[in-house]
Amino acid sequence: MPWLDLLLGLTLVVTAGLALAARDMFRAVVMFIVFGLLMALAWVRLQAPDIALAEAAIGAGLTGVLLLDTLGYLRRPFGSRVDKPEKHQ
Amino acid sequence: MLRQNRLKIMVQTGILCRQPAVLDNAQADWPRWSVMAEQRHAVDRLSWISAYALRLGLLLGVWWILSGSTGDWWFGLPLAVFAAAVSLWLTPPGRFRLRLHRMPFFAGFFLWQSLLAGWDVARRTLSPALPLRPEILHLPVVLPEGAPTWWLMLVISLLPGTLSVRLDEERSLEVHCLDSRLDVPASVRETELQIALLFGLRISGADGGQHS
Amino acid sequence: MNWLLEVVAVLLLVTLVLGLIRIWRGPTVADRMLAAQLFGTTGVGLLLVLAELQQMPALRDVALVLALLAVMAVLAFVARVWRQDPNDNHEGPS
Amino acid sequence: MILIDLLQGMLLLAGVGFFLVGTLGILRFPDVYTRVHALTKADNLGLGLIVFGLLLGAESVPVALKLLLIWGLALVASATAGYLVARAARRRGVKPWKARSGGGA
Amino acid sequence: MSLRLVSAALLCLAVTVALAWAVLDRPLPEENLPDRVSSAMPQSGVDHPVTAVLLNFRSYDTLLEIAVLLLAVVVALALREAQPDRPEQMGLENPLLRAVMAWLLPLILVVAGFLLWAGSYQPGGAFQAGSVLAAAGVLLRLAGVTTAWLDNAALMRAGLALGLLTFLGVGLLVMLPGVPFLTYPLEYAGTLILVIELTLTLSIGLTLISLFRLTPPYADDPDEAREKEAETP
Amino acid sequence: MSGALVFAWSGVLLFGLGLFGFIAHRHLLRRLLAFNIMGSGSFLVLVGLAQHGRGVDPVPHAMVITGIVVAVASTALALVVFRRWYRASGRTDLPEDT
C-alpha cells in the first residue's frame, strides 16, 4: 500500500516544484494542469471520491482552460504599449 | 467479404430522394471509385422525430448504465428528454443513420485493427533503430460529407500507422503515416468500406451490380 | 488478485512520472500539451484500477468525468494559444 | 475461476505494458506528428486492455457497460485531441520529421 | 540570490517547519466528528454523509460559500472588458469538432444530472454537477458554438442568483413552524435538499461559465479592432 | 506511516513551496499558480490529518469541496482582474515589487 502513496505524494511535490520553477510560462501552466490531475488521484487515495470528482472537473479541466486562455491573451501583443510578458520573471 | 474490385459506394439517404449526383475521385494509383449520393430534398418532420427518438433512446441507455439499473426514471427521463433536445439544437438530424445492427461487425474490425495499431507502435518504439519513415499523403475521400467522413477521420487516427491531419475543400484527406512503406491507401480504403457498411450506404461495383 | 492490481497501479503511476519528462523537455508547446493529454488517458486507467482495488465504484464516475473532459485542455490550447499568429514565434525549443 | 484470474492478470499487465510503450514513444519519437501516433494508438490500446481486464471481474452488466463507455469516450477524446493538435501544427507549418537517407530502415 | 529571495526562503522554511511540527504533534480533538455525523445521519434526509454535512449539518457554511461565488461573479461583471462575441474570437470553427461536441455535450449533461441525483446516496452533488455543467458550457464556447443566449442579462442574473435565493428561501420557509433557520423537517428534508441542490447546480454552473466568458480571448485594443475590420472584406 | 499521513506531509511541503513561490515570483500569473498550490497543500493537510486521526471524516471532505469550488472562482476572478491590469498597464507584475 504505502508504495503507491509515497510515489504519488513525491510526484505531487515534484510537479508543484517544477510548475513553480519553470522559466517558460506555458511549461508552468501545463505542469499545473498535471498537478490538478495528480491531486484528484491523491484524493482517491485519501478515500475521498467526492473531492476527487470535484478536482477532476475543476483542477484538471476548468482551471487549466482558464490559465491557457489567459496565456493566449498574453501571447497576443496589442499596440506598442506592451512589454513582452516573458521578460518579467 | 470485401473485395478490392468493389468500386462504388452508393449513398441512399432516406425518404425523399432526388436525382443521384455522381462524384468522381480519379487518380492514377487509385482505382476508380465513385459515390452516388442521392441527396435528401429537405429534412422533414419525420426525420426530426426519428432522430430525436434515437438520441433519446441512447441517452436513456446511458442513464441506465450510470445509475446502475436502479431505475429512478423520474429524474433520468426529464434529464434525457432535455439533453436530447440540446443535442438536436446543436446538430439537426443529418442525412445518415448509424445501422446499429452493423455495430458488432464494425466493433470487431475496429478492435482487431487497434490491436494491430498498438502492436505496430510498440514494435517501432522498442526497436533501437526507431524504424520510422513518416510521410504526409493526400488521399481522396470517397465517403459522403457528414457523419461518415467524421467517423473516418476519427477512426483513421486509431488505426495502424495513420493519423488524419486535415481535410481540404476538395475532399482530399491529409494523412500522416508512420511508415511510407506500408500500403496506407489500401487500409484507408478498407476503413472507408467498413464505415460505408456501418452507415448502410449501398456499395456497388464498377459494373453497377449491387451488393450490400 | 489485489497485489496484481497494486502492481498495475504503481506501474501506471511510474508511466505518469515518465510522462513528466516530455512535459519538461518540450520542445514545442504542442509536445507538452500532448503529454498532458497522455496524463488524462493514463489517469483514467489508473482510476479504473483503483476503483477495483479500493472497492469504490464511485471512482468509475471520476474516471468518466475525466474522460468526458479530456478534450478540454487540448481544445483550449488549440483554440486560444496555438492559433495562426505571425507574431508568435514560440515554435522552437525554449 | 483461476483461468479467468489468469486472463485478467495478463490483460491488465499487457495494458500497462502498452501504456509504458506509449509513454516511451512520446519520449522517443522525433516530432509532434509521430508523438500523436504514440498517444492515439498505444495508450488507447493500453486503456482498452485494462478495461477488458476489469470487465472480466465486473459485478453487473451496467458496470461493464460503464467501463466500455469510459473507454469509448477516451478513444474519442484522444482521437479528437490528436487530430486537433496535428491540424494546428500543420496549419502553422510545422514540418514533419524526415528520416535521414538510409536511416530508419 | 538577492536578499529578498533568501529571506523569503527562510520565512517559508520557518512556516513549513511550524506546520510540520503541527503534523507531528497532531492532538486529537475532543469531539469525534465522524461518529457524530454517522449518528445524525438518519435525521439528515440523505444517505451520503458528505452531502448531509454540506446541505444539512453545515448548511450555513455552504450558504455563505454560494454567496461568495455570487460576489465573485458580480465583481467580475463589473470589471469585464466590454466585448461582443465575434465568431472568430469565440473558438475553433471545425466541423469535425462540432460533430464530436454534438455527441459529447448531451452526454456531459446527462452525467452532470447523474452526479446531482447521485449526491443523495453516493459521491456527487451540486458542486461536482455544477462544475461539470460549467465544463460543458466552456466546451461549447471553445468549439465555437454561439452562446448568445448567455447575453440575456436579466435571465443570466436570475440564473446566477437562483441558487442563493432558493437556499435562503427554503431556510426561511422552514422557520414558519417555529424551528431555527435552515433546520429542515425530517419528512421533507430529502426533497428540500434535492430542490436546493438542483438550483445550486444551475447557479454554480452559470457562475463558472460566466467567469470564463467574462475573460475575452483577446484584448480588444481599439487599434487592433480597426485593423481587423479592415482586413476582413 | 499510513497513506493519509504521507499526503499530510506532502501537503506541508506543497504549502511551503507555494508560499515560497508566491513571495519569490513577480509575474502575477505565477503567483496565482503558487497560491493555488498553497491552497491544495492546505486541503491535503486538512483531510490527511483528519483521516489519520479518526478514519474517513465527511466534515473536512465537505469543507474541501466547497474550498475547491471557491478557489476556482477566485482564480477566475483574479484572472479577470489580471487581464484588466495587463490591458491598462501592459505589464504582468505589480510596480511596487520591482
Describe what this molecule looks like in 3D:
The complex is a heterohexamer of chains A (89), B (212), C (94), D (105), E (233) and F (98). Chain A is mainly α and 89 residues long. Chain A is 76% helix and 0% strand. Chain A has helices at residues 2-21, 25-45, 49-75. In chain A, helix 1 runs antiparallel to helix 2 (25-45) and helix 2 (25-45) packs antiparallel against helix 3 (49-75). Chain A starts with a helix and ends in a 14-residue tail after the last helix. Residues 78-89 of chain A have low confidence and may be disordered. Chain C contains four helices and no strands. The model of chain C is unreliable at 86-94 (pLDDT under 50). With 105 residues, chain D is an all-alpha fold. In chain D, 78% of the residues lie in helices and 0% in strands. The model of chain D has no long low-confidence stretch (mean pLDDT 87). Chain F has a single domain (3-97), classed as Orthogonal Bundle (Helix Hairpins), CATH 1.10.287.3510. Chain F is an all-alpha fold and 98 residues long. Classes of the chains: A mainly alpha (89), B alpha+beta (212), C mainly alpha (94), D mainly alpha (105), E mainly alpha (233), F mainly alpha (98). Chains in contact: A-C, A-E, A-F, B-D, B-E, C-D, C-E, D-E, E-F.
What is the fold's blueprint, element by element?
The complex is a heterohexamer of chains A (89), B (212), C (94), D (105), E (233) and F (98).
Chain D: H1 2-28, H2 32-55, H3 61-91
Chain E: H1 3-25, H2 33-40, H3 49-57, H4 59-79, H5 87-90, H6 95-118, H7 126-142, H8 153-173, H9 186-213, H10 222-231
Helix pairs in contact in E: 3-4, 4-8, 4-9, 6-7, 7-9, 8-9
Chain F: H1 3-24, H2 28-54, H3 58-89
Helix pairs in contact in F: 1-2, 2-3
Structure in a nutshell:
The complex is a heterohexamer of chains A (about 90), B (about 210), C (about 90), D (about 100), E (about 230) and F (about 100). With about 210 residues, chain B is an alpha+beta fold. Chain B has helices at about 45-65, 75-90, 105-125, 145-155, 185-200; strands spanning about 10, 20-25, 30-40, 135-140, 160-165, 170-175, 200-205, 210.
Percent of residues in helices of chain D comes to over 70%
Largest interface: A-F, 49 and 50 residues
Coarse morphology of chain E: globular
Number of strands of chain D: 0
Low-confidence stretches of chain E: 228-233
Structural category of chain E: mainly alpha
Uncertain spans of chain D: none
Q: What is the overall pLDDT average of chain E?
A: 80
Arithmetic mean of pLDDT of chain D: 87
